[in-house]
V-type proton ATPase subunit a (Carya illinoinensis), 818 residues
Amino acid sequence: MGEVRGGCCPPMYLFRSEPMQLVQLIFPIESAHLTVSYLGDVGLLQFKDLNVEKSPFQRTYAAQIKKCGEMARKLRYFKEQMLKAGFCPKKSTAQVDINLDDLEVRLGELEAELVEINANSEKLQRAHNELVEYKLVLEKAGEFFHVAHSSATEVQREYESRQITEESLDTPLLLEQEMLTDSSKQVKLGFITGLVPREKSMAFERIIFRATRGNVFIRHAVVEDPVTDPVSGEKIEKNVFVVFYSGEKAKNKILKICEAFGANRYPFSEDLGKQAQMITEVSGRLSELKTTIDVGLLQRNSLLQTIGDQFEQWDLWVRKEKSVYHTLNMLSLDVTKKCLVGEGWSPSFATKQIQHALERAAFDSNSQVGAIFQVLQTKELPPTYFQTNKFTSPFQEIVDAYGVAKYQEANPTVYTIITFPFLFAVMFGDWGHGICLLLATLFLIARERKYSSQKLGDIMEMMFAGRYCILMMALFSIFTGLIYNEFFSVPFELFAPSAYACRDLSCRDATTVGLIKARPTYPFGVDPAWHGSRSELPFLNSLKMKMSILLGVAQMNLGIMLSYYNAKFFGNGINTWFQFVPQIIFLNSLFGYLSILILVKWCTGSQADLYHTMIYMFLSPTDELGENQLFVGQKTLQLVLLLLALVAVPWMLLPKPFLLKKQHQDRHRGQSYTPLRSTEESLQLESNHGLHGHEEFEFSEVFVHQLIHTIEFVLGSVSNTASYLRLWALSLAHSELASVFYDKLLMLAWGYNNVVILIVGIFIFICATVGVLLVMETLSAFLHALRLHWVEFQNKFYEGDGYKFYPFSFTLIGDEDE
């Protein structure tokens, strides 16, 4: 494990994380930018921050990062404007050599031009919207005055005709009195016109009426189409209003109310001739503004098109530059101020690739001094790095969600690839549902190239990322469905005829009585004759419950075996003899023995009660088994196993803390000095022991920790085994739900002999199957399988207290959002 390998194609390590090394790089300042850029292309070096004590503004390249941040802001502004205009940036793979200062000037010019165009466009659009409103006021208010003028003219004519026809003696006197009235005492009414939002018009009218104590006359006219408000730019339904008032006080009050309600006021003339003239002028100005706005829009679209052609290149280049300068800020300046010193973690296989990148950067930058690459020895725990692909990645994510593996700790992903979809399928077993799940997954895989380049929704993106995990789940569901012999809960004689036949003609239409074994045993899975029989539920319950225990004990034993491989790999004999051995003995003395009893009972066809056997193994270990005895010597074996289980508990609890204390004392007395080990071996021992040179050893803490661990394992062995019974419970629930949907929806609708009822029944059956069995049950089985792996399996060996390897890589920049 200690050799350093090079090459362009690293070997795949999934059981243990990649061997890592702490490296130091020293290169001249003139080639620093190019060196870091080439290392970003390699993407296999995680830099350490050597300037932690400095704030971001005190670092060497703070000005360049600020400059890149400003350019990124401008590019985000361009992107927002393009999305508003309906433009999509063109994707380009061409590499263009761009200068930082030139691009900064170019982006500044484009931003200034775009801001100016937008500002002018907003002003013109606002003026256009105001003129549209003004034209509406002229038209609607003009109708008020025209109607009022017409009615006044009619009233005057009627009055005059009445004057001529009436021969009253009082008339000349009254007329003469009216004519002598002082014209200065006549009341002159003022008016205000404008538009108010329709939803506020009633409140607007009420407030004006109250403020003026009813000394106003208000008229409203509804504008049919929504109007674009000049201030907010939103489409709003409005009403044209005309308020007649008397006096300056009333006018001031009305103006304040208009301002409070967001009512836009416009000037208006009583003269009908002037009104017509103003409408003509406004229409002409509207036409001119429309033409100007269209020209500005074309100019803006042309500018955005120019930006869109190079946007992707600029954006990627700015992201790269910013990440390069961020990385340069993590390096420390040499005392001569001429070199940069960097440290970081890299996989051992990447040594040649990194050295090649350093040599190429020194050559391309015409540097007279080459870069120095050296491996450092350290006691620091390295990051964890697994080489994954699109198939193994979702399973690794499932494990990492629980905790990242410690450096070179056994990785559960290797087994999770098989055990996770299999345990899911045990709960989901129905080959009809499995085929539906398979078709959905094949659809995602078929459109893999298209979807991988698109931004999907949260749920869809999660499903697409785990498509190969779902594929395995579907395949295993088909397999377990064939074992259960269920296709949407319907059994089929796929592999051979049923082993059972009717005793006589009376049982031809019923499978509850009168069946006898007439043919060889059904070769694969459950015999279809069990389905629909009186003993179906007891038989399947017994089968699935015992199968769940067997699977659970097998997986827990696998977890304990992996703890042995961890202890052996890290050279920890204490964990081997005082953790692995008592744990394997305790678990198998109880539940391993129960598994053997289950297998013996299946093979022999015995009627022994296993519940009774296991309970009285503890309560009365010396009593005779009687009819529950499965084999000779069972009683003696039970006594031995019970004794081993009792011995395993103190074996697990007591020796380890005392041995750790002795190791610590020997280390400080100088009795355990050994020759220097290789870097990897020292890293493994340090990460395993966790007790560094000058740390104090608290015996009480270690003992309490071991006590908790022992109690947790002993109680967990019982609770974890019981937890695996969820496989039986969810499998039974899935089977019964499928059976209910089939019998009560599909078959019930079929029995009516009505096409409409049949179609409705089929539709409801499909909706119930998809919604409940293919969505909710899939999610339920997935979560339960997740719990079985995280709690019951991984807690036997997996520490999960490591940290991920995050290399400086340009390939990851495209996935990051600013």
In short: Confidence is low (pLDDT under 50) at residues 1-12, 167-183, 671-694.
